[in-house]
Amino acid sequence: MRNNWSIVIHEVTQTTAAIWFGTLKSDMRKYELFALHVHETKSMGAGTESSAHVTTIEIDGRKLKKPFKGSGQRFYGVEFLQGLKPGCCYKVELHRPSQDIGLPSFIDARQLSFGSFRTLPEKLTTKDFAKPLVVMLGSCFYPDDDDFAVGQAYEALLASGKEEEKPDIKFLTGDQVYLDIGLDSLSPVYQEVQERIAEDYALSWLRLRRMLRHGGTWMLADDHEFWNNYPHTTGKNPYLWMLHANRTIKEIWEKSALDGVKNVQRILPLRQIDISEQISFLLADTRTQRTEYNKSKPSENRFMSETDLSELEGWITTLTCPGVLVLSQPLIVKPGGEIDRNLADYHEQYSRVLEALSKCAHDVLVLSGDVHYGRISNISLGNSGRTLHEIIASPMSNLTGIDGRFAASKSKKIKTFPPIKSEGIPKQEVNYPEHFWRVSSQRTGGIFGIGDYTKTKEHFSTLAFSLNPDGQVIVDVKTWLLKEKSRSGKPREQFKTPNEVYSITLQ
Fold it and tell me: Would you list the DSSP string of 412-448?
Protein backbone atom coordinates (compact mmCIF):
# COMPACT_ATOMS: atom_id res chain seq x y z
CA MET A 1 0.00 0.00 0.00
CA ARG A 2 1.27 3.47 -0.90
CA ASN A 3 2.50 5.41 2.12
CA ASN A 4 3.47 9.07 1.86
CA TRP A 5 3.96 9.77 5.56
CA SER A 6 7.46 10.84 6.54
CA ILE A 7 9.72 11.45 9.49
CA VAL A 8 12.49 14.04 9.21
CA ILE A 9 15.04 14.35 11.98
CA HIS A 10 15.78 18.04 12.43
CA GLU A 11 18.04 19.65 15.05
CA VAL A 12 19.64 17.41 17.66
CA THR A 13 21.72 18.35 20.69
CA GLN A 14 23.44 16.28 23.34
CA THR A 15 20.09 15.67 25.09
CA THR A 16 17.29 16.73 22.70
CA ALA A 17 15.96 16.10 19.20
CA ALA A 18 13.31 17.79 17.02
CA ILE A 19 11.21 15.24 15.09
CA TRP A 20 9.18 16.49 12.13
CA PHE A 21 6.45 14.11 10.97
CA GLY A 22 3.63 14.38 8.48
CA THR A 23 2.76 14.18 4.81
CA LEU A 24 3.32 16.65 2.00
CA LYS A 25 0.96 14.81 -0.36
CA SER A 26 -2.56 16.16 -0.73
CA ASP A 27 -4.37 12.80 -0.78
CA MET A 28 -3.46 11.38 2.62
CA ARG A 29 -5.93 11.03 5.48
CA LYS A 30 -5.34 12.90 8.75
CA TYR A 31 -6.07 10.38 11.51
CA GLU A 32 -7.45 11.29 14.90
CA LEU A 33 -4.56 9.75 16.77
CA PHE A 34 -0.86 9.11 16.16
CA ALA A 35 1.86 7.63 18.35
CA LEU A 36 5.59 8.30 18.27
CA HIS A 37 7.62 5.42 19.72
CA VAL A 38 11.24 6.11 20.72
CA HIS A 39 13.78 3.35 21.36
CA GLU A 40 17.50 3.22 22.01
CA THR A 41 19.46 1.40 19.32
CA LYS A 42 23.07 0.49 18.60
CA SER A 43 23.44 2.33 15.31
CA MET A 44 21.72 4.55 12.74
CA GLY A 45 20.24 3.36 9.47
CA ALA A 46 17.43 1.49 7.77
CA GLY A 47 18.16 -1.94 9.24
CA THR A 48 18.84 -0.92 12.82
CA GLU A 49 17.03 -2.90 15.51
CA SER A 50 15.32 -1.31 18.49
CA SER A 51 16.50 -2.11 22.00
CA ALA A 52 15.40 -0.32 25.18
CA HIS A 53 12.09 1.52 24.94
CA VAL A 54 12.49 5.20 25.89
CA THR A 55 9.04 6.74 25.53
CA THR A 56 5.80 6.77 23.59
CA ILE A 57 4.19 10.10 22.74
CA GLU A 58 0.49 10.12 21.85
CA ILE A 59 -0.40 12.84 19.36
CA ASP A 60 -3.82 14.34 18.78
CA GLY A 61 -4.18 14.35 14.99
CA ARG A 62 -6.53 17.33 15.14
CA LYS A 63 -3.61 19.49 16.26
CA LEU A 64 -1.51 18.86 13.16
CA LYS A 65 -0.90 21.97 11.09
CA LYS A 66 -0.88 22.71 7.37
CA PRO A 67 2.64 23.36 6.07
CA PHE A 68 1.23 25.48 3.23
CA LYS A 69 -1.64 27.67 4.38
CA GLY A 70 -3.43 27.82 1.04
CA SER A 71 -2.86 24.32 -0.22
CA GLY A 72 -4.57 20.96 0.11
CA GLN A 73 -4.80 18.23 2.72
CA ARG A 74 -1.19 18.27 3.83
CA PHE A 75 -0.32 18.00 7.52
CA TYR A 76 2.67 18.07 9.83
CA GLY A 77 3.70 18.23 13.47
CA VAL A 78 6.93 18.60 15.40
CA GLU A 79 7.72 16.79 18.62
CA PHE A 80 10.70 17.68 20.82
CA LEU A 81 12.38 14.80 22.59
CA GLN A 82 14.19 15.65 25.83
CA GLY A 83 16.29 13.88 28.41
CA LEU A 84 18.29 11.88 25.85
CA LYS A 85 21.82 10.57 26.39
CA PRO A 86 24.80 12.28 24.67
CA GLY A 87 26.36 10.35 21.78
CA CYS A 88 23.60 7.73 21.82
CA CYS A 89 21.60 6.31 18.90
CA TYR A 90 17.80 6.28 18.85
CA LYS A 91 15.11 4.94 16.56
CA VAL A 92 11.79 6.79 16.13
CA GLU A 93 8.65 5.17 14.73
CA LEU A 94 5.45 6.95 13.70
CA HIS A 95 2.41 4.73 14.24
CA ARG A 96 -1.27 4.98 13.53
CA PRO A 97 -3.02 3.14 16.39
CA SER A 98 -6.22 1.22 15.66
CA GLN A 99 -9.11 3.68 15.52
CA ASP A 100 -12.88 3.68 15.31
CA ILE A 101 -13.95 5.74 12.29
CA GLY A 102 -17.69 5.19 12.70
CA LEU A 103 -17.89 2.19 10.41
CA PRO A 104 -18.61 -1.45 11.33
CA SER A 105 -14.86 -2.15 11.56
CA PHE A 106 -11.81 -0.38 13.01
CA ILE A 107 -8.75 0.93 11.17
CA ASP A 108 -5.93 -1.46 12.05
CA ALA A 109 -2.77 -0.19 13.72
CA ARG A 110 0.10 0.47 11.31
CA GLN A 111 3.62 1.91 11.24
CA LEU A 112 3.61 4.93 8.94
CA SER A 113 7.27 5.93 8.99
CA PHE A 114 10.51 5.64 10.93
CA GLY A 115 13.84 7.35 11.42
CA SER A 116 17.04 7.18 13.44
CA PHE A 117 19.53 9.62 14.88
CA ARG A 118 22.55 10.01 17.09
CA THR A 119 22.68 12.76 19.69
CA LEU A 120 25.71 15.04 19.67
CA PRO A 121 28.72 13.96 21.73
CA GLU A 122 29.67 15.84 24.88
CA LYS A 123 33.13 16.37 23.44
CA LEU A 124 35.39 15.47 20.53
CA THR A 125 37.96 12.73 21.08
CA THR A 126 40.81 11.07 19.21
CA LYS A 127 39.76 8.62 16.51
CA ASP A 128 41.01 5.57 18.34
CA PHE A 129 38.94 6.43 21.42
CA ALA A 130 35.47 7.01 19.95
CA LYS A 131 33.62 7.63 16.69
CA PRO A 132 34.34 11.07 15.17
CA LEU A 133 31.49 13.52 14.76
CA VAL A 134 30.67 13.12 11.05
CA VAL A 135 28.89 15.92 9.19
CA MET A 136 27.40 15.39 5.75
CA LEU A 137 27.47 18.50 3.51
CA GLY A 138 25.28 18.83 0.41
CA SER A 139 23.22 21.28 -1.63
CA CYS A 140 21.24 21.72 -4.85
CA PHE A 141 18.80 18.87 -5.42
CA TYR A 142 16.72 18.66 -8.61
CA PRO A 143 14.62 15.46 -8.48
CA ASP A 144 14.06 14.82 -12.20
CA ASP A 145 17.02 12.48 -12.78
CA ASP A 146 17.95 11.55 -9.21
CA ASP A 147 16.33 8.10 -9.12
CA PHE A 148 16.83 8.04 -5.32
CA ALA A 149 20.63 8.13 -5.75
CA VAL A 150 21.18 10.56 -2.86
CA GLY A 151 19.23 8.46 -0.38
CA GLN A 152 20.81 5.21 -1.55
CA ALA A 153 24.33 6.63 -1.23
CA TYR A 154 23.60 8.04 2.22
CA GLU A 155 22.13 4.77 3.51
CA ALA A 156 25.05 2.83 1.97
CA LEU A 157 27.51 4.87 4.04
CA LEU A 158 25.48 4.20 7.18
CA ALA A 159 25.40 0.47 6.39
CA SER A 160 28.89 -0.15 4.98
CA GLY A 161 31.02 2.89 5.75
CA LYS A 162 33.83 3.12 8.23
CA GLU A 163 33.05 4.91 11.48
CA GLU A 164 34.61 8.09 10.13
CA GLU A 165 32.37 7.89 7.03
CA LYS A 166 28.99 7.36 8.68
CA PRO A 167 27.13 10.69 8.90
CA ASP A 168 25.77 11.70 12.30
CA ILE A 169 24.26 15.01 11.22
CA LYS A 170 23.89 16.86 7.93
CA PHE A 171 23.99 20.43 6.68
CA LEU A 172 21.91 21.03 3.54
CA THR A 173 22.94 24.48 2.42
CA GLY A 174 20.25 25.46 -0.05
CA ASP A 175 18.25 24.64 -3.18
CA GLN A 176 16.76 21.54 -1.58
CA VAL A 177 13.83 22.36 -3.89
CA TYR A 178 13.57 24.16 -7.23
CA LEU A 179 10.33 26.17 -7.26
CA ASP A 180 11.08 28.05 -10.48
CA ILE A 181 11.75 25.34 -13.07
CA GLY A 182 9.09 24.16 -15.51
CA LEU A 183 6.31 25.58 -17.65
CA ASP A 184 3.81 25.21 -14.80
CA SER A 185 5.56 28.26 -13.29
CA LEU A 186 3.71 30.31 -15.90
CA SER A 187 0.24 29.59 -14.50
CA PRO A 188 -1.81 32.75 -13.78
CA VAL A 189 -4.17 30.83 -11.43
CA TYR A 190 -3.51 31.66 -7.77
CA GLN A 191 -4.44 28.22 -6.41
CA GLU A 192 -2.26 26.49 -9.00
CA VAL A 193 0.75 28.53 -7.84
CA GLN A 194 0.23 27.35 -4.26
CA GLU A 195 -0.36 23.74 -5.29
CA ARG A 196 2.70 23.70 -7.56
CA ILE A 197 4.99 24.85 -4.74
CA ALA A 198 3.53 22.29 -2.34
CA GLU A 199 3.90 19.51 -4.93
CA ASP A 200 7.50 20.52 -5.65
CA TYR A 201 8.24 20.01 -1.96
CA ALA A 202 6.32 16.73 -1.88
CA LEU A 203 8.37 15.31 -4.77
CA SER A 204 11.75 16.45 -3.45
CA TRP A 205 11.04 15.23 0.09
CA LEU A 206 9.90 11.86 -1.26
CA ARG A 207 13.12 11.46 -3.24
CA LEU A 208 15.22 12.59 -0.27
CA ARG A 209 13.27 10.63 2.34
CA ARG A 210 15.91 7.92 2.82
CA MET A 211 18.41 10.61 3.79
CA LEU A 212 16.16 12.98 5.74
CA ARG A 213 14.93 10.27 8.10
CA HIS A 214 18.41 9.40 9.41
CA GLY A 215 20.50 11.84 11.44
CA GLY A 216 19.94 15.42 12.57
CA THR A 217 19.34 17.93 9.77
CA TRP A 218 20.00 21.66 9.55
CA MET A 219 18.88 23.37 6.35
CA LEU A 220 19.55 26.75 4.78
CA ALA A 221 17.60 28.42 2.00
CA ASP A 222 19.09 29.69 -1.22
CA ASP A 223 17.48 31.34 -4.22
CA HIS A 224 15.60 28.35 -5.68
CA GLU A 225 13.66 27.95 -2.44
CA PHE A 226 11.97 31.02 -3.96
CA TRP A 227 13.08 31.72 -7.52
CA ASN A 228 16.35 32.22 -9.40
CA ASN A 229 18.40 35.12 -7.99
CA TYR A 230 15.79 35.85 -5.30
CA PRO A 231 14.72 38.48 -4.33
CA HIS A 232 15.60 39.89 -7.77
CA THR A 233 13.45 39.21 -10.82
CA THR A 234 15.99 40.46 -13.34
CA GLY A 235 17.36 38.33 -16.14
CA LYS A 236 15.82 36.37 -19.01
CA ASN A 237 14.51 33.31 -17.18
CA PRO A 238 11.25 32.52 -19.04
CA TYR A 239 9.82 30.69 -16.01
CA LEU A 240 9.68 33.98 -14.08
CA TRP A 241 7.52 35.92 -16.51
CA MET A 242 4.47 35.71 -14.24
CA LEU A 243 6.39 37.47 -11.46
CA HIS A 244 6.66 40.48 -13.77
CA ALA A 245 3.17 40.23 -15.18
CA ASN A 246 1.12 39.89 -11.99
CA ARG A 247 1.96 41.40 -8.60
CA THR A 248 -0.53 39.16 -6.79
CA ILE A 249 1.06 36.05 -8.30
CA LYS A 250 4.44 37.24 -7.00
CA GLU A 251 3.01 37.79 -3.49
CA ILE A 252 1.33 34.36 -3.40
CA TRP A 253 4.45 32.66 -4.76
CA GLU A 254 6.66 34.33 -2.15
CA LYS A 255 4.30 33.60 0.76
CA SER A 256 3.95 29.94 -0.22
CA ALA A 257 7.73 29.65 -0.61
CA LEU A 258 8.20 31.14 2.88
CA ASP A 259 5.73 28.55 4.24
CA GLY A 260 8.03 25.83 2.93
CA VAL A 261 11.15 27.49 4.34
CA LYS A 262 9.63 27.92 7.81
CA ASN A 263 7.33 24.91 8.21
CA VAL A 264 9.06 22.18 6.20
CA GLN A 265 12.74 23.14 6.31
CA ARG A 266 12.53 24.89 9.72
CA ILE A 267 15.08 27.55 8.75
CA LEU A 268 16.00 30.27 11.25
CA PRO A 269 18.29 33.30 10.79
CA LEU A 270 21.09 31.96 13.03
CA ARG A 271 21.65 28.62 14.77
CA GLN A 272 24.68 27.75 16.87
CA ILE A 273 26.01 24.31 17.81
CA ASP A 274 28.82 23.97 20.34
CA ILE A 275 30.74 20.80 21.18
CA SER A 276 32.27 21.46 24.59
CA GLU A 277 34.76 24.31 24.08
CA GLN A 278 36.45 22.50 21.20
CA ILE A 279 34.44 23.50 18.10
CA SER A 280 31.60 25.93 17.41
CA PHE A 281 29.26 25.75 14.40
CA LEU A 282 27.10 28.65 13.20
CA LEU A 283 24.52 28.35 10.44
CA ALA A 284 23.64 31.75 8.99
CA ASP A 285 20.71 32.40 6.65
CA THR A 286 21.79 34.99 4.07
CA ARG A 287 18.89 34.57 1.63
CA THR A 288 15.42 34.95 3.16
CA GLN A 289 16.01 38.51 4.42
CA ARG A 290 18.09 39.62 1.44
CA THR A 291 17.16 42.94 -0.19
CA GLU A 292 17.14 43.73 -3.87
CA TYR A 293 20.45 45.27 -4.85
CA ASN A 294 20.21 49.04 -5.32
CA LYS A 295 23.34 50.60 -6.82
CA SER A 296 22.25 54.13 -5.87
CA LYS A 297 21.69 53.20 -2.19
CA PRO A 298 24.58 50.89 -1.25
CA SER A 299 24.03 51.30 2.50
CA GLU A 300 20.57 49.73 2.17
CA ASN A 301 21.79 46.58 0.42
CA ARG A 302 21.91 43.62 2.79
CA PHE A 303 21.91 39.81 2.76
CA MET A 304 20.80 39.58 6.40
CA SER A 305 19.27 41.87 9.01
CA GLU A 306 21.47 44.27 10.95
CA THR A 307 20.70 42.41 14.18
CA ASP A 308 21.71 39.05 12.71
CA LEU A 309 24.86 40.47 11.11
CA SER A 310 25.94 41.96 14.43
CA GLU A 311 25.43 38.58 16.09
CA LEU A 312 27.43 36.87 13.33
CA GLU A 313 30.27 39.39 13.78
CA GLY A 314 30.18 38.78 17.52
CA TRP A 315 30.40 35.02 17.08
CA ILE A 316 33.44 35.36 14.80
CA THR A 317 35.38 37.86 16.91
CA THR A 318 34.76 36.13 20.26
CA LEU A 319 35.51 32.54 19.23
CA THR A 320 37.42 30.70 21.93
CA CYS A 321 37.90 27.65 19.70
CA PRO A 322 37.90 26.96 15.93
CA GLY A 323 34.66 27.87 14.18
CA VAL A 324 32.62 26.38 11.35
CA LEU A 325 30.49 28.91 9.47
CA VAL A 326 27.76 27.33 7.31
CA LEU A 327 26.40 29.51 4.49
CA SER A 328 24.24 28.98 1.42
CA GLN A 329 26.79 30.77 -0.82
CA PRO A 330 30.61 30.74 -0.73
CA LEU A 331 32.72 33.54 0.71
CA ILE A 332 35.68 33.05 -1.65
CA VAL A 333 34.01 34.43 -4.77
CA LYS A 334 33.97 37.32 -7.17
CA PRO A 335 30.80 39.46 -7.28
CA GLY A 336 28.18 37.67 -9.36
CA GLY A 337 26.61 40.71 -10.98
CA GLU A 338 23.06 41.49 -11.97
CA ILE A 339 21.90 38.03 -13.08
CA ASP A 340 23.35 36.06 -10.17
CA ARG A 341 23.98 38.12 -7.04
CA ASN A 342 26.19 36.57 -4.37
CA LEU A 343 27.54 37.70 -0.99
CA ALA A 344 30.37 39.74 -2.53
CA ASP A 345 27.84 41.91 -4.37
CA TYR A 346 26.66 43.23 -1.02
CA HIS A 347 29.87 45.17 -0.41
CA GLU A 348 29.11 46.75 2.96
CA GLN A 349 27.93 43.63 4.80
CA TYR A 350 30.46 41.41 3.03
CA SER A 351 33.28 43.75 4.12
CA ARG A 352 32.07 43.60 7.70
CA VAL A 353 32.21 39.81 7.67
CA LEU A 354 35.76 39.90 6.25
CA GLU A 355 36.84 42.46 8.83
CA ALA A 356 35.45 40.29 11.63
CA LEU A 357 37.31 37.28 10.23
CA SER A 358 40.56 39.26 10.19
CA LYS A 359 40.18 39.76 13.97
CA CYS A 360 39.35 36.14 14.69
CA ALA A 361 41.62 34.36 17.19
CA HIS A 362 41.06 30.93 15.61
CA ASP A 363 40.79 29.24 12.24
CA VAL A 364 37.40 29.27 10.56
CA LEU A 365 36.02 26.65 8.17
CA VAL A 366 33.27 27.80 5.78
CA LEU A 367 30.86 25.20 4.37
CA SER A 368 28.59 26.12 1.47
CA GLY A 369 26.97 25.13 -1.82
CA ASP A 370 25.03 26.96 -4.57
CA VAL A 371 27.53 27.13 -7.41
CA HIS A 372 27.07 23.64 -8.98
CA TYR A 373 30.66 22.61 -8.44
CA GLY A 374 32.74 21.22 -5.60
CA ARG A 375 35.88 22.94 -4.37
CA ILE A 376 38.33 23.12 -1.46
CA SER A 377 40.41 26.24 -0.88
CA ASN A 378 41.94 28.40 1.84
CA ILE A 379 43.36 31.86 2.46
CA SER A 380 45.30 33.59 5.25
CA LEU A 381 43.31 35.77 7.65
CA GLY A 382 45.44 38.91 7.68
CA ASN A 383 48.21 39.20 10.27
CA SER A 384 46.54 36.94 12.81
CA GLY A 385 48.29 33.82 11.50
CA ARG A 386 44.90 32.12 11.23
CA THR A 387 43.41 30.46 8.15
CA LEU A 388 40.02 30.59 6.47
CA HIS A 389 39.22 27.23 4.87
CA GLU A 390 36.28 26.78 2.52
CA ILE A 391 34.58 23.60 1.28
CA ILE A 392 31.84 23.70 -1.36
CA ALA A 393 29.62 20.70 -2.14
CA SER A 394 27.21 21.22 -5.04
CA PRO A 395 25.11 19.68 -6.57
CA MET A 396 23.53 16.53 -5.13
CA SER A 397 21.43 16.21 -8.29
CA ASN A 398 21.86 18.21 -11.50
CA LEU A 399 19.13 19.89 -13.48
CA THR A 400 18.22 18.20 -16.76
CA GLY A 401 17.53 19.22 -20.35
CA ILE A 402 17.95 22.82 -21.42
CA ASP A 403 17.69 23.92 -17.79
CA GLY A 404 20.67 21.70 -16.99
CA ARG A 405 22.74 23.33 -19.71
CA PHE A 406 22.28 26.81 -18.25
CA ALA A 407 22.78 25.70 -14.63
CA ALA A 408 25.77 23.40 -15.25
CA SER A 409 29.25 24.35 -14.17
CA LYS A 410 32.60 22.80 -13.36
CA SER A 411 35.02 23.64 -10.56
CA LYS A 412 36.54 27.10 -10.88
CA LYS A 413 39.50 28.76 -9.23
CA ILE A 414 39.38 32.29 -7.90
CA LYS A 415 42.95 33.56 -8.39
CA THR A 416 43.07 36.27 -5.72
CA PHE A 417 41.10 37.24 -2.61
CA PRO A 418 39.38 39.35 -1.38
CA PRO A 419 37.50 40.59 -4.45
CA ILE A 420 36.95 44.00 -2.86
CA LYS A 421 39.17 46.22 -0.73
CA SER A 422 39.32 44.96 2.85
CA GLU A 423 40.95 46.70 5.80
CA GLY A 424 41.82 43.48 7.61
CA ILE A 425 42.65 40.96 4.89
CA PRO A 426 45.38 41.83 2.35
CA LYS A 427 45.09 40.89 -1.30
CA GLN A 428 46.55 37.40 -1.76
CA GLU A 429 46.50 34.32 -3.93
CA VAL A 430 43.97 31.66 -3.00
CA ASN A 431 45.45 28.27 -2.08
CA TYR A 432 44.05 25.06 -3.59
CA PRO A 433 45.26 21.68 -2.27
CA GLU A 434 46.64 19.56 -5.10
CA HIS A 435 44.55 16.46 -5.99
CA PHE A 436 41.78 17.55 -3.60
CA TRP A 437 40.65 20.99 -4.68
CA ARG A 438 37.91 20.04 -7.16
CA VAL A 439 35.16 17.56 -7.90
CA SER A 440 35.41 16.04 -11.37
CA SER A 441 33.02 16.87 -14.19
CA GLN A 442 31.57 14.97 -17.12
CA ARG A 443 30.24 15.75 -20.55
CA THR A 444 26.60 15.08 -21.24
CA GLY A 445 24.60 14.92 -24.45
CA GLY A 446 25.75 14.66 -28.05
CA ILE A 447 28.32 16.50 -30.08
CA PHE A 448 25.85 19.14 -31.24
CA GLY A 449 22.76 20.79 -29.79
CA ILE A 450 21.58 22.01 -26.40
CA GLY A 451 22.28 18.65 -24.77
CA ASP A 452 26.03 18.99 -25.25
CA TYR A 453 27.59 20.52 -22.15
CA THR A 454 29.88 19.80 -19.19
CA LYS A 455 28.57 19.44 -15.65
CA THR A 456 30.01 18.61 -12.24
CA LYS A 457 29.29 15.09 -11.08
CA GLU A 458 26.59 14.72 -8.42
CA HIS A 459 28.16 14.49 -4.97
CA PHE A 460 28.09 15.28 -1.31
CA SER A 461 30.92 15.43 1.23
CA THR A 462 31.49 14.02 4.70
CA LEU A 463 33.61 15.79 7.30
CA ALA A 464 34.82 13.78 10.29
CA PHE A 465 35.68 15.95 13.31
CA SER A 466 38.09 14.49 15.90
CA LEU A 467 41.19 15.45 17.89
CA ASN A 468 44.84 14.74 17.18
CA PRO A 469 47.16 13.67 20.06
CA ASP A 470 47.94 17.35 20.73
CA GLY A 471 44.27 18.17 21.26
CA GLN A 472 43.85 20.09 18.00
CA VAL A 473 40.69 19.63 15.91
CA ILE A 474 41.21 17.49 12.81
CA VAL A 475 38.69 17.46 9.95
CA ASP A 476 38.96 14.53 7.53
CA VAL A 477 37.15 15.37 4.30
CA LYS A 478 35.82 12.87 1.80
CA THR A 479 33.69 13.57 -1.26
CA TRP A 480 31.35 10.89 -2.63
CA LEU A 481 30.18 10.54 -6.24
CA LEU A 482 26.54 9.61 -5.82
CA LYS A 483 25.92 7.84 -9.12
CA GLU A 484 29.07 5.71 -9.07
CA LYS A 485 29.38 2.72 -6.74
CA SER A 486 32.38 0.94 -5.32
CA ARG A 487 32.53 -2.83 -4.84
CA SER A 488 31.43 -2.44 -1.21
CA GLY A 489 28.19 -0.81 -2.32
CA LYS A 490 29.25 2.60 -1.07
CA PRO A 491 29.36 5.55 -3.46
CA ARG A 492 32.77 5.97 -5.08
CA GLU A 493 35.22 8.37 -3.48
CA GLN A 494 36.19 11.38 -5.58
CA PHE A 495 39.86 11.81 -4.77
CA LYS A 496 42.32 10.14 -7.13
CA THR A 497 44.43 8.12 -4.71
CA PRO A 498 42.31 5.31 -3.20
CA ASN A 499 41.41 5.83 0.45
CA GLU A 500 43.30 9.12 0.52
CA VAL A 501 41.69 11.74 2.77
CA TYR A 502 42.09 15.50 2.78
CA SER A 503 42.76 16.55 6.38
CA ILE A 504 42.47 20.02 7.85
CA THR A 505 43.95 20.97 11.22
CA LEU A 506 41.97 23.77 12.87
CA GLN A 507 43.74 25.88 15.47
Answer: ----EE-SS--SSS--EEPB--TTTSB--EEEES-SS
